[in-house]
Amino acid sequence: AEHDRAGEPAVVIANGAEGEPCSGKDRLLLRTRPHLVLDGLRLAAEAVGATDTFVYLPHRDRETRRSVSEAIRERARQLAGEPQPELVAAPPRYVAGQETAVIARVQGNAARPIHTPPLPFVRGAWGRPTLVQNVETLARAALIARGADSAGLALITVTGAVGSPGIVEIAVGSTVAEAVTAAGGTVGQAGAVLAGGYFGHWLGPPSCWGLGIGTDVPLGAGVIAVLDRGHCPIAETARIVAYLAAESARQCGPCRFGLPAVAEGLAGLTAARRPRPRLDLLRRRLDEIIGRGACHHPDGAVMLVQSMLTVFPAEVERHLRQGPCAACAGAPLLPIPSSRGGWR
């Protein structure tokens, strides 16, 4: 309705930035099923009356860009005269895939989240109604339009201490154990599971194995990461939050000051420092951050830390009393990319 009142042609963007370090599903689709994504993009454009479409690609990913570019050239030959989407590269920043950051980058600006309202579907790129959809959502729409029974399925990246790390397709509601089994099962004794990616939630085996993905546990970025007993969830959380603090757009107090303070507190749990960090101070900082950011970035980091404190209270207390455990000094299991890239 807002689109009709505005009288402006809409814009549709296929978001394949995949800034989540543990995830690989969007790259897989863009590399191996680009026509499926482009079919979904076309359907979305027709549904909202869009005249301009874009595919937002991972930074400097030549293989993905080559695959999508070739698919667009094939479609241009087969569908002569039909407008084809424009490719835009996402910078290598965690927040560059956030909806308003995507819109900013498509317009040629830095890929930093911008304040809303108005919401993008009211006023987005160039002031026009804008729809930003993940490439998996578009691919699913295309499959359903072809008559395939794809509803209720999801791609999940299963990584960490599993036999065959990679991407599996499951029915929404499948258990964590079923997803892990599809990736070859656990290697060693599982000590923790991160569900949803770096804005996700920690889970504790064995009670988590029966939880449904997308029902009991949010899908998030579509990630299930298994930690064995040789890796410490406290240390992994500290590394992740330090990374997220460095990746912020620094546009609000929670990102500029709050996340670095939380990262510093977590680092104190995993280092032999005196005095030991104060848990009450860490919890207070988390409460001060939540809901006050310019975008969802600080909230996502806070929820990750809160889940760690909830799921592993004994481990946290042990780190407070005794200092870092033996696993804290080991190499991280979960990937921590460099934060040296720019915003364009």
TrEMBL record:
Record's signal peptide: none
Keyword Ribonucleoprotein: no
Taxonomic superkingdom: Bacteria
Obligatory cofactor(s): [4Fe-4S] cluster; FMN
Coiled coil: none
Domain NADH-ubiquinone oxidoreductase 51kDa subunit iron-sulphur binding, chain residue ranges per copy: 234-279
GO biological process, alphabetically ordered: cellular respiration
Keywords: 4Fe-4S, Flavoprotein, FMN, Iron, Iron-sulfur, Metal-binding
Family matches, as Pfam families: Complex1_51K, NADH_4Fe-4S, SLBB
InterPro entries membership: ComplexI_51kDa_subunit, Nuo51_FMN-bd, Nuo51_FMN-bd_sf, Nuop51_4Fe4S-bd, Nuop51_4Fe4S-bd_sf, Soluble_ligand-bd
GO molecular function, one term: 4 iron, 4 sulfur cluster binding
Family, per entry: Belongs to the complex I 51 kDa subunit family.
Name of the molecule in the record: Proton-conducting membrane transporter
